[in-house]
Amino acid sequence: MHMAPFTVTRNALIPAAPADIFPLVNNFHEWTKWSPWEAVDPKLSRSYSGNESGVGAKYAWSGNNKAGTGNMEIVGSEEPGKIDIRLEFTKPMKAVNPTEFTFVPEGDGTRVTWTMTGENKGIGKIFALFMNMDKMVGGDFEKGLTSLSAAATQKNS
Questions:
Q1: Which of 156, 145, 85, 136 minimizes the C-alpha distance to 111?
Q2: Cα dihedral sign for 85, 106, 80, 57?
């Protein structure tokens, strides 16, 4: 089985302090305000378990074919600089994609970088699906960072 690792990463300069953005990512309840996947399935069913926020916070979702089924768990949280998430998809295909958010002060704002890594397993159809991972997921990340920026700056006004 050939494994081809891939990385999808996007970053944005958000006009807010790391301390104002960090909680929006560190608490899965806040993801409804900015996550690019929330709109994919209006009937999405969500469940939260474990801690309210930070390490040990868990979120599971189950939705239509587009949204799929999976879960996330915060496995690393260093306020206000970095959050590590174990992202697991169970449908339409099984995959674990370690995901990381970093928050670095830049000028009057924060450079937020969202990175997801994973492995392409096998070849053929599945491989073709992943070939466009950067475009597919990258577009979602860009949308999400724009919404995250809106959510973070709204808090201040």
A1: 145
A2: negative
> pTM score, two decimals?
0.87
Q: Which CATH architecture has domain 3-156?
A: 2-Layer Sandwich (3.30)
Nearby residues of 136 by Cβ (< 8 Å), 6 or more positions away: none
* Whether pLDDT at 107 is above 70: yes
Measure Cα distances from 146 to 99, 108, 149 in Å: 18, 17, 5
Contacts (Cβ under 8 Å, ≥6 apart) of 133? 6, 8, 118
Please give the share of the chain, as a percent, with pLDDT higher than 90.
63
What confidence tens digit (pLDDT) does each residue in 56-78 have? 999 999 988 778 899 999 999 99
Identify the bridge partners of residue 114 per DSSP, sorted by sequence position. 10, 101
